[in-house]
Amino acid sequence: MLIADLRKEYSRANLSEEGIQPDPIAQFGKWFDEALKAQVPEANAMSLATVSADGRPSCRIVLIKDFDQRGFTWFTNYDSRKGRELQHNPHAALLFHWIELERQVRIEGRVERISAGESERYFQSRPLKSRIGAIASAQSRPIDSRISLEAQYMQAEQQYGEHPPRPDHWGGYRLVPDYLEFWQGRNSRLHDRIAYLLQADGSWRRQRLQP
């Protein structure tokens, strides 16, 4: 079979203007809860797209750790490639793909660092080995071998024991959205797409997009 011949018809659900929430964060919460109830594998996984200072895009999977009316939060090394790119260009895009439900959610907006206190609370809630790993790994930087990486981990483990401190270069980001789009797969590729656009007065305008 050729890759070009791989096709699937989507028919699980629909998305209507009458059935969608007026607030996009509430709509996201509804769909996120449904993804959890459907036991979608890693429903909290999302693609994060950033752009470098010279306009080169990059994308990777990260895990959302919180969302509310302020935005969507994840944690990482501030000195990683995504951290360096966000420093130059604080705009980013997120994508959730819940294929079992034939759904996608696209989110765009401006990214900001969360407070040190919020980052500290989450860091201390992580498993011990993950906290040590955050210290040991200079994320996105080259290293000569796996052996060297494990040696860095062992050194951090010996140095800090069961009480590793949160590094200054590790913490949370929050994407403050100005655009959200909800996509529901439909038959004949006539998918439902409803977008929310943030207005100057803080309200959200909804519009249907052609597939």
Structure description:
The protein is α+β, with helices and mostly antiparallel strands and 211 residues long. It has a single domain (11-126, 168-209), classed as Pnp Oxidase, Chain A (Roll), CATH 2.30.110. The protein has helices at 24-37, 81-88, 116-125, 128-136, 146-160; strands spanning 45-51, 57-63, 66-68, 71-77, 91-98, 103-113, 170-184, 192-198, 204-209. Strands 1, 2, 3, 4, 5, 6, 7, 8 and 9 form a 9-stranded antiparallel sheet that branches. A hairpin with a 4-residue loop joins strand 5 (91-98) and strand 6 (103-113). It is globular, with a radius of gyration of 20 Å.
Please indicate the count of domains.
1
Mean pLDDT: 97
Largest sheet: 9 strands, antiparallel
How many helical stretches?
Answer: 5
State the main characteristics.
211 residues, Pnp Oxidase, Chain A, nine-stranded antiparallel sheet, 5 helices, globular
